[in-house]
Request: fold
Amino acid sequence: MEQGSGNSKKQKQNKEFVKEITPKNVDYSQWYIDVILKTKMMDYAPMKGFMAIRPFGFAIWEKIQEQLDRRFKDTGHENAYFPTFIPQSLLQKEADHVEGFAPELAWVTKGGNEILNEPLAVRPTSEAIICDFYSRWIQSWRDLPVLINQWCNVVRWEKSTRPFLRTSEFLWQEGHTCHRTEEEAEEETLQMLEVYREFLETEMAIPAIAGRKTEREKFAGALRTYCVEALMTDGRALQAGTSHNLGQHFAKVFDITFLDQDDQLKHIWQTSWGVSTRLVGALIMVHGDDRGLILPPRMAPTQVVIVPILSKKEKERVLESVRELEIQLKQDLRVKLDDREEYSPGWKFNDWEMKGTPVRIEVGPKDLDKGHVVMARRDTGEKEFVKREEVPARLKELLEQIQNDMLEKAIEFRKANTRTGDDYEEFKRLMETERGLYLAPWCGEDDCEGKIKDETKATIRCLPFDTEVPGEKCFACGEKAVAAAYFARAY
Amino acid sequence: MEQGSGNSKKQKQNKEFVKEITPKNVDYSQWYIDVILKTKMMDYAPMKGFMAIRPFGFAIWEKIQEQLDRRFKDTGHENAYFPTFIPQSLLQKEADHVEGFAPELAWVTKGGNEILNEPLAVRPTSEAIICDFYSRWIQSWRDLPVLINQWCNVVRWEKSTRPFLRTSEFLWQEGHTCHRTEEEAEEETLQMLEVYREFLETEMAIPAIAGRKTEREKFAGALRTYCVEALMTDGRALQAGTSHNLGQHFAKVFDITFLDQDDQLKHIWQTSWGVSTRLVGALIMVHGDDRGLILPPRMAPTQVVIVPILSKKEKERVLESVRELEIQLKQDLRVKLDDREEYSPGWKFNDWEMKGTPVRIEVGPKDLDKGHVVMARRDTGEKEFVKREEVPARLKELLEQIQNDMLEKAIEFRKANTRTGDDYEEFKRLMETERGLYLAPWCGEDDCEGKIKDETKATIRCLPFDTEVPGEKCFACGEKAVAAAYFARAY
Reply:
């Protein structure tokens, strides 16, 4: 137990509270589900595989949106909205694309009491419908680049689902850009990958590895797919975002051309890139502990909760003080005063801890007498007394400290759970036990990649940039190694 | 022509530009379509009735979202997200609701290559699916009120569509709240109606009339529907937002109950309220003119455009000056410097005017010599010289002035086009000619309301609050008048 409290009644209360969350080392999957249900982040829909994102979960998604949207706009992108349905004929134009998504489609076959002549797919991703528009919008080099992003819902009929990580409907953003040259498209693809990596690190305190996907793992229809991969605390990897260089694959079948300055009609070069509500799942699994969520301050809907310790006699004096504190702190921070009288302070401590609130401030009559407050960190459980007049300055400092410490901790965890080697037997054993990331020399052959997956359930998460190949022979098949590859079991 | 320019070559250029927009008095509908297509606000999808909202149109929707979302949160609401599909059985629970929406539904019948056991409707509005969740989330009076809003897309299979105003898919927000008492629900319903009215007035410079809908016009499943109605410049009314007191209609069929403080199990009281992307259409039709859009400064994605007048010799000097100006103004305002060299200043003037940019700043070599800039208002066409050092202060003042003047102008237009009377023949004539709003004494009977609609295509837009009945007899049927009603032809 991280919370250091000398009060035995409170300890008992806490214990019972925490009992409702399965410990991580007993059943990680159940821990995950317990946390998101108990904190009311989501709830299951009556249709299998669907969910509602409840206000607390959605508030985290709003923070993700806010921070990413700012970065998209700073890099020159604009938002737009495209239809939720895609006519079957459009979806079939790009062969790899339709093959990749066909098994996951939901089809609208009836509209306004009439059977439709052509079924409409509910978008699983929007390349096909957007390319149809782009073919009309783009005429000249003056119309390029097109830098458009869309925030929306998509539907993919999934067989096995897990809240936030894989659901039949999810929320995401999808950027779709068009360029004059191959170089410009590749530059955009890598720029957005770096936007994701930097965002994950800076805002979510999640260290992610950037790299390229193999042919097997790339997006259906892409020329090249890049990704950012994060390591969860159960040793599994999670693909946190992807950025695709689409080349001219879609431009050619959708006939998206422009008259260049040299008077030649040319096909455009495209990219697409996206992250989804699965990032909420990543946040839970990178930082959470047996008491529930731990939110990095920059992502927390509530950064600081103030819990007054109310006794009958001193109630008004304490309330007056915390209300004043709340008003003062609200100017710069996301603060909540929990002055509900139907719950005890102990219950509130646990509830806000479970929800991952970075800092709790306690104020009771004795604290008032002494002119201080108690400040408790969610991530370490540490408590300190802070003079009332120093609270705003100390809080700012503390929140920054927590943000940094959480990133450091996640980096340490990843380091401790990343091995470099060429011992396939050791690798197999690891994938069955501690898991983690395994950086190995690889031959680059699809067959070998498939065999590894069959034997270990591990996949190549990415081929990292600028990484020396850690051996001359492929660690699995013994052929000549051509690339360094991160292997892991993944969500 | 509003723009006062002495340059005949420029005038010719302007004329040709404007030629592409049909004048309002020639064909209002065509004017509307010309404006939104020419300004690239939207484009038609390959499926009838659907559209893409292009970046310029979407930027206006983002402003609407930003301003409304702030107001929702200030009144204690939180955002959430519910599934896009509603199982048929849930939709059928509330009889009026399903009857009202059945003809407009799109049905998903196939998912992941399998025929579904139960068809799923794409949400036309989310009461049915949300009530299903609420029935599980609400147990005790402690869980109330529930104050949730959702921003999402909805689908209604419309037979005749018009961009932004009526499309088979549109974007909107839907608030769904639950309360302990009837009074609290009614208070919430009216509070959100006032939020809409005040937002329209303050931000969009659209004066709207608030009132109650008749039984015939109310939301399918509601106890009472309230609305805000705005008058377009062609004399038609447009329902700009609705707020519904749902009573216990849904609570009873979805069994949403709570244990009250008195230990009694009770049904909750509900409200729902929404506005949609049709507000973008209202903005165009309330303020636009024959040269295109006119955007109120608070809604304009670009509030000020700076157009440098570049001559070969003086190019660098002018560019340096406008770049400096842009950086200075960007601190407080949404400013764009249009320094594209492939377009002439005249072309740019027209393009930014068509897009409704509130203020244009022109800077040429002569202006630099004289130490001033030219400032042109989009709404009145007025130009003024402003000393360089006074630009930021004058701009702030001017933008506020424009915002106020646009609201005043819209109020004046509505006044001039609202008649109070009890002359049915005069009313019939008006509905065929100038249209506008007609405030008349009405009997309160559904039959009479239906007959008026058949004879004049006019509907009751709302029964305004606190308005004296302007006559003793119903202006249409001669029976005893019980209410004052606003009649109009509507979008």
Remarks:
- Chain A has 15 helices and 23 strands.
- Residues 304-401 of chain A form a domain with the Rossmann fold fold (CATH 3.40.50.800).
- Chain A has a mean pLDDT of 95.
- Chain A touches chain B through 56 residues (CB under 8 Å).
